[in-house]
């Protein structure tokens, strides 16, 4: 019973607590946004894969504050825990959240982490650890989790068998809108456990009348009415029981049980005629439902009580036929599960397209075995087992695909090697030649630049002479030397002419010097542009050359390592999948066997009751015939 | 007889309040398996991380790596049906969105729509979107942008918006 309460509380908590929606407002890190995109579609493996990589990279960078993820770090640390939780990796989720808890963070973040850790422990049936985590909460608590936190605290107290501590916490939560119905119901249960029965009944009465159209709140309201009705029935307060059962919706998950119980409340009060009404409605419902099957016996039982033995015998006969048919179905289902069709149906892709895949599974025409597994499939443990099986199947598919991709990688690398290796020696030889030419030109450019810089401080116009001018100056120097050998009379005349020519040249060099210097700098800049293009081409070549080598060198070891890891992971996954599948099948078969046993018990009761009813009908007829006219 | 049936039926009714659960031994086995499943998930995630790095290095070297991401503008009501992307006039991606994917975009998710290789230098990207507005009318829009691919990997974020949002229909951001 303690376990059942715990499951119920967990479900209530899960229904009311929603993980913080990851937000991409003002997104700075695209890969973080990508993780949110995957998680929002329920693809938690892919979300974790991306976010783990981003977080690992962020931790490796020298200046994390310049990394794009820095802006989302607090959210990302929580999100990774949430995704792990959603991917049913509670251990890792716990570790991730503990890391936040132990880091030097402010109250708001630490308290939220403690809350999340407590929630994980609670969901994993570890209420002591959950309470320890809750006790770490001090200081400011984020507004968004305040009510959920108190609700969790109350549930933890209840799970620890401390309902008296849960009561005051739950009383304070009665106005919480997002816990509507749940807080009211849990308070009723806590009061009951604490031994305050009158107050508990009053509270459950209130919880059973909470006005809400929200499906989860409406379901918990129905649940409150069922519990209250059951208690009233046990204490023989049949009218009050009837009232509670009547409040349960006719289309909700508890409607069949409510109809059955409402009939029993009437029958227990001796109102068999009134009991016929809910039971008549019930027998037309899904024949696989246990309440419907029970109603098939209850209805003729009521007719019998009303002395309508003929009708009772007829209905017992119909019940017998129905039980026989259902028993055949259950036995066929057991055979079908043993043949492996249940697991095959589980992994069918099309049934996972919506969140209600478990319900859809039941509707598959070729998966009849699931008709009788409704309650089993709704249980937390079985759900976890089913999800684990599906996760393992998904991992199996991924690993098989990866295994195939290694061969493709090998091919790719082989082709690249075959393409580049013969080309590279010739390319390298040409490159070396061009490289030496380039270095020479760059050296020449450097010398020119140095000269130009030198003449800025010590002007030397002759350095900017044109080729013609340099030739002319050289010839003048030759002429000057030659003049030395002529007669004095001629020498004077010639020297005058040479000086004149030299003067013209020097005049030009001196007067045009500023323009020539400017032009020289312009030319140098132009040369620099060409050198830049050349350098860019050079660097591009070096990168391309490196990329060519990197496209096929250095992959052998990682591919070989990954191939081994994938192989052993695949073995492990296959082994676990087989064990998980076998366990699911065994539990399902056991459930079906229990249903079969119950149907067999119904059958024998019906058989006995048919005979009994016929006897009574015959006797009544005889008595009627023998009676005086 | 009737008393016996009543007792049996009351017991069965009482049974509905006990939750459906597997036997304790099976529960223990399921718990044990759950632990192992968690471990193997962790191993496979590590393999996936290493494999992704290898794949990226092998298939999309950093000097030619181009990735295009699609996001919806905050609070956008446009029902995005499809996005087409052409790079330098060549079709690069053509994506039709499912309801789930659209919801994921509306929740702030970012979809990597294209990963490929291009040479460094100047390029053009053309983005076209098809969708339906809140009033049910069809909406199509197309725009071309120039971009430069440098030596580093190029990550391009494309934010889409409908005409009623007051935002540019297509906005390009670099990361």
The average pLDDT score of chain A comes to 86
Largest sheet of chain A: none
Principal-axis shape of chain A: elongated
CATH-assigned fold name of the domain at 1-161 in chain A: Serine Threonine Protein Phosphatase 5, Tetratricopeptide repeat
The SSE order of chain B reads HHEEEHEEEEE
Distance between the termini of chain B: 80 Å
The CATH class of the largest domain in chain B is Mainly Beta
Q: What does the largest sheet of chain B look like?
A: 4 strands, mixed
Question: How helical, in percent, are the residues of chain B?
Answer: 25-40%
Number of E-state strands of chain B: 8
Note the beta-strand portion of chain A.
under 5%
Please give the radius of gyration of chain A in angstroms: 45 Å
CATH architecture of the largest domain in chain B: Sandwich
Describe the structure.
The complex is a heterodimer of chains A (629) and B (175). Helices cover 78% and strands 0% of the residues of chain A. Chain A has 629 residues and is mainly α. Among the domains of chain A are: 1-161, Tetratricopeptide repeat domain (Serine Threonine Protein Phosphatase 5, Tetratricopeptide repeat, Alpha Horseshoe); 208-287; 417-557. Chain A starts with a helix and ends with a helix. The relative contact order of chain A is 0.06. By secondary structure, chain B is α+β, with helices and mostly antiparallel strands. Chain B has two domains: 18-58; 65-174, Immunoglobulin-like. In chain B, strands 4-1-7-8 form a four-stranded mixed beta sheet, with no helix packed on it. Chain B has a four-stranded antiparallel beta sheet with strand order 3-2-5-6, with no helix packed on it. Chain B contains three helices and eight strands, in the order ααβββαβββββ. The longest helix of chain B has 36 residues, at 24-59. Mean pLDDT of chain B is 85; it is low at 1-22. Chains A and B meet through helix 1, helix 2, helix 3, helix 5 and helix 12 of A and helix 1, helix 2, strand 1 and helix 3 of B.
